[in-house]
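Re-run with default settings, no changes from the original entry. Doing this only to confirm the output is reproducible before filing.
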Amino acid sequence: MLSKKGLETKPDSLVFEDFDMFLKEHGKRRTPERFKILESVLEFTKQFTVEDLIDALVAKSFIVSKATVYNTVLLLVEAGVLRHFSVDNRSHYERADNVSFIHLECEHCGKVKLVKDLNFMAYMNARKFMAFATSYYTLTVYGTCNDCARKIKQLKRKKNSNKKEK
C-alpha cells in the first residue's frame, strides 16, 4: 500500500492485526484507547512527538490521559509499529514500515523535513559492518531551511541599508 508520501507501507488493517496479536502474545490488555491511539498514529505522514499525538487526539475530542498515550507509544515501538529517534534531544516517532529517511533539521526554527535519497540508501544498504546487522537508520543533517535563509538575508539587507543611512 502506498502512503500519502508515495512510499510502500503495510495496510493499516494489517498493522491493527499485528498490534492486536502482539498484545495477546504479551498478555497486555486490548483496550479501545490503545486502538484509538494507534488509529491516530497511522494518520501521521511524517515524524511526530507524543505531544503532537496528544494534540491530534484532543482535536478529535478523544480524551485520554497523557500516561496512557505515552505507554501506548512505548508499546507501539516494542511491537515494531513505530520507530523512535531523537532530534535535538526530543523524542520523535515514525512508522516502522516507512523507508529510512534523511532528516533535514533547521538550526534556526527547528523545522524537520524528511527526504529520501536513493543513492544514500543504496550506499547504506550495501555497507557491511563487522558484527552488526543494520535494521534501519536515521541521519540528521543540520542547516538552514529556505524560509530562515530568506529571513536572514532580509535582515542582513536591512542592517546594511540602515548602516548606509547613518
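The helical segments are 12-25, 32-42, 50-59, 66-78, 118-126, 146-165. The mean pLDDT is 85.
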